[in-house]
Amino acid sequence: MMSEKTGEIFQTDVLVIGGGIGGHTFAITAKEKHPDLNILLVEKASAGLTGPSALVGGRYSGFLPELDDFDTHLKVTVQDFDYICDQDKIRDHLNSSGAVVRNLERWGVKFVKTPDGQYERPLSRGATTGLLIDGGGIPAMKALNDYARSIGVKFQNHVMATGLLSDRTRVSGAVGFHVRNGKFYIFSSGATVLATGMTRFKTIQPGHRNDTGDGYAMAYRAGAEMGGFDSTHHNTYGAKQEVGPGNNMFVGLGGYFLNAKGERFMHRYHPELAERAPFVWLSPSFCMERMAHRAPPIYLDMRHFTAEKIQSLWRSVPYAMIKFERAGMLKGDKFVQPIEYTPEGPRPMPCGVVTDRNYESRNLKGLFAIGDASSAKGSGGLPGAAVSGAIAGLYVAGKVPGAGKARVDAKEAAALKEYTLAPLKRRDGIEPEHAILALQESIHPYYVAIIRHEKHLKQALAAVERIRDDLIPLLHAYDFHYLMSANETRSMVLCAEMLLRSALERKESRLGRLRQDYMQLDNIDWLKHIHLKEQDGKMKVWAEDVPVGPHALQPKREKILHPFWQRVQALGYPDNLEEKNGN
């Protein structure tokens, strides 16, 4: 029997962990499909008010079947993933995308439209267009939160989930604590949905600080198969000031980057798209400028923007514009100075729980992962979260009703409670910020996070292992806020280990996985997913073939110099970049 002394027990049909657009879309879709379904959403901050969904850069890269060509979008998406993807999920995503956009509007999300009622679809990063959220993410998420509550979705804010209840074959719920009063909760559920996003290892950017890989860590410790941690999409942000979000809008409207000599340089690396190049080209190009002694600093220049463009930014990314104005960079309808920019640290993506087409874990029944919590999904960003949430919501609504009385193992719940509260029970130790800084210093250098080499990856892994073994056991929490930070820190250290071990496994350059010691893109031997899981207390990592056989879109079975390295060589950079870097 479960003792009430362990914690307050909630029984629900469906438990959703994470209050962004994915969690809301899942909950609303499932509730509308099956109104009697008991759905509880828990969020460690405030659902709908925090995180990347609320503080998004104003762009929703949604596919619209009445306006866009299916085959073109399919091809672009598969190629953007460098074929390390699930083409069935991409097709599912495109087939569902239009209905999801219409539902978002029905639920209260507003998109920017022209005077004649058409969607505004400006240029942005990459080769395709998208939609603009009117007012940015905050009003959009407020609308979704209000609608979800109106149809009976239940919420628990300020509750941090810290562990999944699992017998290694099935997940039956989760545990967590209230970050303000410390109350411990046990959630018994027929289906548990991770909508917890990714991790950016505590960058300075708004909405990113709560993204600490909690879902990844919980799933890994519960025995789920994980994948994709060898890939990182490194964005670029303000180097000295928290001025985001809005990068898609800034470059889409014609912002450009200048190196330390005042030269535009992105056209040299990506002649077709220049500043609108994807993440996986942009940040490495910054690094090359540094290696060529033309950076830092690097600046984003928008001083040439017209008043009309400034007003467009105010409408789509008001949070960023307020920041620019307060910092003195924006005066009236004019940017008066450029903004110093830098690559962000590693952002593991696309990675997460290995799931089937319904977004259920491949090896743990009852566990679902949507958005950035799932690997090999159909798309990233807001549309990826919203569409995967809708697909999973429809599936779960037809499967789970009446399953809320899942059996919970009392000993397991007590052990998870002990793990969660351990930093609070220590009389002294180290503060989480100390371990976080050590972690950032280990994995954030560009020659670890972006331009990789086996030597640097191994050095970083050794540093992360020391943090894991020497610092994490000493984490001390003065109060429940510090307890949240301590649990976030443990998650991020585990995510860093998953990232580095996976990166070492892949012996080629592909997508956001550039290696100086393996510059070839190898579709002969390395058209593979990198998977991992916990086994006998250790991290098992392995490569698994990407199932491209049944699909019409096929990569060329060849081994070539990666296109980015082709550009670097064409620019006359030496082959011995690792030695030139001096690391």
3D architecture notes:
This protein is an alpha+beta fold. Among the domains are: 236-290 and 300-343, Succinate dehydrogenase/fumarate reductase flavoprotein, catalytic domain (Flavocytochrome C3, Chain A, domain 1), CATH 3.90.700; 422-581, Methane Monooxygenase Hydroxylase, Chain G, domain 1 (Up-down Bundle), CATH 1.20.58.100. The protein has 19 helices and 21 strands. The strands form six sheets. Strands 1, 2, 5, 6, 7, 8 and 17 form a seven-stranded mixed sheet that branches. Strands 16-9-19-20 form a four-stranded antiparallel sheet, covered by helices on one side. Strand 7 (171-178) and strand 8 form a beta hairpin. It is globular and about 65 Å long.
Q: So what's the CATH class of one domain? A: Mainly Alpha
Q: Please tell me the overall pLDDT.
A: 92
Shape annotation = globular
Compute the number of strand runs. Answer: 21
Give start-end ranges of low-pLDDT stretches: none
Helix content: 25-40%
Tally of alpha and pi helices: 19
According to CATH, what is the topology of one domain? Methane Monooxygenase Hydroxylase, Chain G, domain 1
Strand content: 15-25%
The span between the termini is: 57 Å
Class computed from helices, strands and strand pairing: alpha+beta
What would you give as the CATH superfamily of one domain? Fumarate reductase/succinate dehydrogenase flavoprotein-like, C-terminal domain
Largest sheet: 7 strands, mixed
Radius of gyration based on Cα positions:
23 Å
CATH architecture of one domain: Up-down Bundle
Keywords summarizing the entry:
583 residues; alpha+beta; Flavocytochrome C3, Chain A, domain 1; Methane Monooxygenase Hydroxylase, Chain G, domain 1; 7-stranded mixed beta sheet; 4-stranded antiparallel beta sheet; 19 helices; 38% helix
